[in-house]
Write a structure and sequence with these properties.
The chain is an all-alpha fold. Helix content is 72%, strand content 0%. Helix 2 (32-44) runs antiparallel to helix 8 (192-206), helix 6 (128-147) packs across helix 12 and helix 11 packs antiparallel against helix 12.
Length: 432
């Protein structure tokens, strides 16, 4: 089967296991951790710690499904590939299309966040030609790095990850010594609606593993590397996120009203230079996430073109660098346009809504693929897989019911556009 074949891929397998773990962590520790501690605290106060735990548990169930399903495949595409094989080309394309679209919007929103933080050092970057110029340099630099080879890109990603872990870990490690135990109160139970909304928001914070699975066609021994890396990464990230929330609650009395909670908290226990230190961390975090999205996003276009669901020229591979260079250039150009014209907060909720949809489909694929004899066998098997998959689907549906009508409407419009693209490509293939 072409979709799962390792030998048919023209891409270079230059991503090692450690690099892949770093890629997952880099994407997961993204922009959400910089602002969501205040948002979830405003919703449910100290119970936000429980919301983090519930979110981590939900994501762990989904990751177990991803781990088994991904262990059957070695090709590029991630959830697009899994759902295409499990449910057919139409559902697969819709997942790939919406997935790519959500990554485009997420990139643009984080690019805006980067410029907002950079304007702390130079206010002129907040608008005008300097804002557009900085975005152009940022997108152009990241696209060039990915254009010139996956090995170099993976190594740079690893450097970003180590730096990000060290910086945020330092914030959490120092801040724990200054946390006030009196700030933690669990006397009043949170309401169902705000608690559900908090968990929905935090799903975005824990996401990233799904994106990292896209370039499996460039990962060494992906059927073994992907499942192990998923489990190691989520454990690391969950501990770090919980520690950050504890520090923010314990050191920042007005956390619910904070626009930059980590910076405000650091200013309290690190002094005047604390906010500047966190601003640098924010720039590092945003850049690392942007780099990871630039690495993974174009591979979705490549995978869909390789399966003849998009024009063939998007599957072109550079003869020297062995990278999907046309997909990289197209994605980078559209990301730049969206970044210059986009915002941050709306994209967060829309991206989470789309993610929950293909999370549920991937979980549902687990029992279906177990009954199939025409797909490769799983190299990682989850005990009680059917129960875990069913629980994952139900939890995703629960969270989807707490999304707003606006995001659901826009996701439906995007899905309809995907159907138009599918129809156009089918007519094109028949006429050629």
């Amino acid at each position: 089967m072409k979709s799962s074949s390792a030998s048919s891929s023209p891409l270079l397998r230059g991503i090692r296991r450690f690099d892949f773990i770093a890629l997952i962590i880099n994407i997961t520790i993204g922009a959400g951790i910089l602002g969501l501690p205040a948002r979830v605290y405003a919703l449910i106060s100290t119970w936000s710690l429980l919301a983090y735990a519930v979110s981590a548990a939900v994501i762990t169930l989904i990751i177990l499904c991803f781990a088994e399903v991904s262990s059957r495949f070695s090709g590029t595409g991630g959830p697009y590939l899994y759902t295409r094989v499990a449910f057919g080309p139409l559902i697969g394309f819709e997942v790939g299309w919406l997935f790519w679209l959500s990554r485009m919007v997420a990139f643009a929103s984080i690019c805006n966040l980067f410029v907002n933080y950079a304007s702390v050092f130079r206010p002129q970057l907040a608008g005008g030609w300097e804002r557009a110029g900085l975005m152009t340099l940022l997108v152009g630099g990241l696209a060039s790095l990915n254009y010139m080879g996956v090995k170099q890109s993976a190594r740079v990603n690893t450097i970003f990850t180590i730096s990000k872990l060290a910086a945020i870990g330092l914030f959490a490690g120092i801040g724990l010594f200054f946390a006030d135990p009196a700030a933690f109160s669990f006397q009043t139970l949170p309401g169902y609606t705000p608690f559900s909304q908090a968990v929905l928001l935090l799903i975005f914070t824990f996401s990233g593993f799904d994106v990292a699975a896209i370039p499996a066609g460039e990962i060494q021994q992906p059927q073994r590397t992907v499942p192990l890396s998923l489990l190691v990464s989520i454990g690391t990230v969950a501990v770090l996120f919980m520690a950050v929330q504890v520090v923010c609650i314990g050191t920042l009395p007005d956390l619910a009203r904070s626009e930059r909670p980590l910076a405000d908290a650091a200013a309290r226990f690190l002094g005047p230079w604390g906010a500047g230190f966190i601003t640098i961390i924010a720039l590092l975090t945003a850049t690392g996430t942007l780099h990871a999205l630039m690495l993974t996003g174009p591979r979705l276009l490549f995978a869909m073109a390789e399966q003849k669901q998009l024009p063939d020229w998007l599957a072109a591979v550079h003869p020297r660098f062995h990278t999907p260079y046309t997909a990289i250039l197209v994605t980078a150009a559209l990301q730049l346009i969206l970044a210059i014209t986009g915002t941050f907060l709306y994209a967060l909720t829309l991206s989470t809504l789309i993610r929950l949809t293909y999370y549920a489909l991937t979980c549902a694929a687990l029992p279906l693929l177990r009954r199939r004899t025409d797909v490769p066998g799983a190299q990682f098997s989850v005990a009680g897989g059917a129960l875990i998959a069913g629980s994952g689907v139900l939890l995703c549906v629960w969270l989807l019911t707490n999304s707003s009508g606006r995001e659901a409407r826009d996701a439906a419009i995007a899905a309809a556009i995907g159907l138009i693209i599918v129809g156009a490509m089918r007519r094109y293939r028949r006429s050629h």
